[in-house]
Amino acid sequence: MISDVINDASKARSKKQKIEILRKNETWALKDILRGTYDETVKWNIPNGRPPYKENQGYNAPSNLLKKHKEFITFVQGQSGDSMRKIRREQLFITLIESVPPPESELVIDMINKIPIKGVTKAVVKEAFPNLIQK
Hints:
The protein has seven helices and no strands. Helix 1 packs antiparallel against helix 2 (about 15-25) and helix 3 (about 30-40) runs parallel beside helix 6 (about 100-110). The longest helix is centred in the last third of the chain and has 14 residues, at about 85-100. It has helices at about 1-10, 15-25, 30-40, 65-70, 85-100, 100-110, 120-130. It is globular. By secondary structure, the protein is an all-alpha fold.
């Protein structure tokens, strides 16, 4: 799970170890979470804050971010979701976070709110993936 990779990287003692963990576990889902969190050019079309949703029990989560990260584009300003009604876009967002395990839904909510990942700084991400963050 992406949350496991982030957790491992955040617990690593040195910057070098953090970078190694991120690079070793490189996936588009991981990079989407990191870019969505730290890149100032990525603006979210979802209200800030914590949406009302029902957290699943984790062990019976029907999906994970490795599969669902492709849906993020729907929630980025200036992309395909712009033409969608606001209520529909927000319903899709809630459906997404309800379909992944709780640690991953927390990552997505923090990403939308641009809350930095504890232990994995923007500098670490820029060094691990030099061309990922534009600004």
